[in-house]
Amino acid sequence: AALRQGNGQWRGLLAVRLIDSPLIAVGSPAAARRLSGRGTAALASEPLLGEVPLWERWFALDACRVPVNPVADFNDWGMMLQAVEQDIGIALSRELLAADALRDGRLVRLSALALPDDQAYAYWLAYPPELEHWAPLVALREWLLDELARSQRALAALPSRSETAPAD
């Protein structure tokens, strides 16, 4: 079995979609204070972390045309979120991947804007069809889905998005 990011279509494998939450702008509490009340375009003045196309699509949600020049890109979401927690920059993150840090106050949602995951690949659990009912794989699949559901519930318990969006 493997955790994969993509469109869920891999020859010879079954795949269960795990994460397809929207991409949101997150920053450290210090970044949220700097950006408070400044609007969407102000985020472009911060060091951006991540991919240019995703940031361009995110800013376009608010009809905002600003130069996008990320200072770093990461191939590991966890490392990127750690950099954000250390106030190295701000990032777009899948909401669900940032759920614990948002809940604990290590990260702050910087805007109510949310980029749907329709073009940013989702996460999947992929495995050969003959293992679909194998007890260890069933246990892994159920555990992953339970943990993700727990994080989703934690997100739902956070203050409303308008209360956590100081840049809007």
**Contiguous helical run count:** 5
Largest sheet: 4 strands, mixed
Strand order within the widest beta sheet: 4-5-3-6
Unreliable stretches covering 5 or more consecutive residues: 161-168
Q: Residue share in helices? A: 25-40%
Structural class: alpha+beta
Report the portion of residues in β strands: 15-25%
Q: Give the tally of β-strands.
A: 7
Judging from the principal axes of the Cα atoms, what is the shape?
Answer: elongated
Mean pLDDT: 89
- Using the CA coordinates, give the radius of gyration: 17 Å
**SSE run:** EEEHEHHEHEEH
Q: Compute the separation of the termini in Å.
A: 42 Å
Give an overview of the whole structure.
This protein is an alpha+beta fold. It has five helices and seven strands; from the N terminus they run E-E-E-H-E-H-H-E-H-E-E-H. It has helices at residues 29-35, 52-60, 77-85, 99-104, 135-157; strands at residues 2-6, 14-19, 23-27, 48-49, 90-94, 108-115, 122-127. It has a four-stranded mixed sheet, sandwiched between helices. Strands 1-7-2 form a three-stranded antiparallel sheet, with helices on one face. The chain is elongated and about 55 Å long. The model is unreliable at 161-168 (pLDDT under 50).
